Input
Amino acid sequence: MSFHAPEFIFAFLPLCFVGFLAVHRLWGWDAALLWLAGASLVFYGQWNLALAGLLLGSILFNYGAARLLLARIEDRRTARRLLKGAIVANLGLLGWFKYTDFLIDNTNLVAGTALPHLDIVLPVGISFYTFIQIGFLVEVYNRQVGAIRFGHYLLFGSFFPCVTAGPIILQKDILPQLAADRVATLDSARIAVALTVFSIGLFKKLILADNIAPFADGVFDSAAAGVPVGAALAWIGALVYTLQLYFDFSAYSDMALGIGYLFGIKLPLNFDSPLKACSITDFWRRWHMTMTRFFTNYLYAPIAMPMTRRALQRSYGRTARFLVATAVPVSATFVLAGLWHGAGWTFVVFGLIHGLALAINHGWREARMASLPPLAGWLLTMAVVVTGLVFFRAADVPTALALLAGMAGLSPLDIVQAAAEPELVRIAADAGTALVWIAVLGTIVLTCPNTQELMWRHWFSSDPRPEDGRLWPLWLTWRPTLGWSVVGAILLAAALGSITGHGGFLYYQF
Output
């Protein structure tokens, strides 16, 4: 059951909200939060009851670990051991489900063995809810959490708008909101904003992302089947997938924040027009923002800080100090970030591309080189992004390399072989349509406001509202008027009219 499924829109979400209002009215705010936590477990359990038990077990384990940490917080040695043990347990669970078959494949390749796959079912969102709880444990250890209430932690670890594909929330994002008792939960203005944000996301997913998906699928699937793909179709496939992932992930992010706000809970932003970025550093400030925050705080900083101290103590030269203190930590961080997305060498290469690009970007600034003109910076950034996404989407590294060779004009099209591949023939016949989609969606990406800019008057995120200067003209931002209601109704009607026959969100696979 995804956010765009009929049973979610017409059954689960309305029933959950009505029950939330009724429980709050009858028994108060904390009881309403327990209702919401129970509904979240039901939402997760519709994929697999056993995996819902796994989620609940993870929450109970980490709640217990957090309580032990709090009890031993003044004994730093014991607390450190408890933290390390809990983190190892969490990563061990994640590794078992996500990376066991990947390790078997590589063991067979290196050692020449023939170990069979265990075919372990990957729990939806395990990468996200594991990191949410690791982040909480680290913040308890760092004395950023003073007390833990079980009902609040249960909702924090299971809240259905973000348990399956983010945002990766921290305790500061949500626990203070849960601790603030509410007098009223039925707020018409808040509900209007929440449903508008949800409708924008639904439109992005069903009308924009899903309608261009077949173009990308046809090109990548043909390349995976060994069919040489010429330059034109290779570029169509790469650009369409970039836009598909952009709108798919943007849609999920909007819908998650809209659902959270419907219940009066603000979530952090996870998406801020990343394809407008003119540097790779700026791109990662805008794309998967909560993942970038998590890896920066809990992986990059612990790696970089001791290496920086060592470089200073040993009086390394400027270049050596940069390599040790910046280039290596940022590259290693993004290789692990790539591997976090999926168990495959394509994700490792994706992370390495971005890690090296970030290292070069930091090195450029460290050397105080002149900034590139905005257009040149944007083109260079998009070249890195599109190249990385070819690996991100490809079935394996050889497929990605074949597509990149095609994009570079180094893969001559075999007309006979291509004509025997129905998907490639279909894409070639519809190339004009694909180009129109690329032009239209590219224009939307580069010229239109994103959702939080459009909704600036009525801020729905736990992040601070930005200053006026960088936003869409104020008179064009959303207001609860008849005109905007008509626009929202049109978007919602168009999306609901396309609600059947679509797959899940792309980030569900991670």
Q: What stands out?
A: Residues 97 and 121 are 7 Å apart (CA to CA). The mean pLDDT is 90.
